[in-house]
């Protein structure tokens, strides 16, 4: 589940694709600043509101006409990033983070049959977003395309998309202890 944001995580120095928090050390201040600047998230409530919007509507509905279908990957890739940063910021606990990640599985699994298909839609959604809202955003579309090529490269043994077959999306990455 955490590998759904691999295109974005791949662009971060020192990232991990396989842990809940994408960096080795949690820096709550950096996570809070990132969420505030990128998403206008400054609390648990605004985090949940943003996640609800990404899960129910996001940008995909506005993009559907231009792409020919709603690019679910674009919204759910970012959904996972927001969860990971929200956990790092202290806005949600680990159990909640895993529960929220698990809720992304059904819409993503119903929309795609492979990492390749997921990646294609993510890149398509990002390209359309960059042409409109994201013009002033850091990073280029080419950075994302290169990240996808690295992730899909069958010789890249560090790629989570090579290490974790697509069909494992139907199984939880982590089962949190009950009663915590």
What does this molecule look like?
The protein has about 180 residues and is an all-alpha fold. It has one domain. About 60% of the residues lie in helices and about 0% in strands. It has 10 helices and no strands. It has helices at about 5-10, 30-40, 45-55, 60-65, 70-90, 95-100, 105-110, 115-130, 140-150, 160-165. α3 runs antiparallel to α5 and α5 packs across α8. It is globular. The two termini are about 20 Å apart. The model has no long low-confidence stretch (mean pLDDT about 85).
Summarize the structure.
It contains ten helices and no strands. It has helices at 6-10, 28-39, 44-56, 60-67, 72-89, 94-102, 105-111, 115-131, 141-152, 160-163. Helix 3 runs antiparallel to helix 5.
Oligomer: single chain
Task: Give the count of structural domains.
Answer: 1
Average pLDDT: 86
Indicate the radius of gyration in whole angstroms.
Answer: 15 Å
The H-and-E topology, N to C, reads as HHHHHHHHHH
Distance between the termini: 21 Å
> Which residue ranges are poorly predicted, with pLDDT under 50 across at least 5 consecutive positions?
none
Task: Name the descriptors.
single chain; 180 residues; mainly alpha; 10 helices; 58% helix; globular
What is the fold's blueprint, element by element?
Elements: H1 6-10, H2 28-39, H3 44-56, H4 60-67, H5 72-89, H6 94-102, H7 105-111, H8 115-131, H9 141-152, H10 160-163
Helix pairs in contact: 2-5, 3-5, 4-8, 5-6, 5-8, 8-9
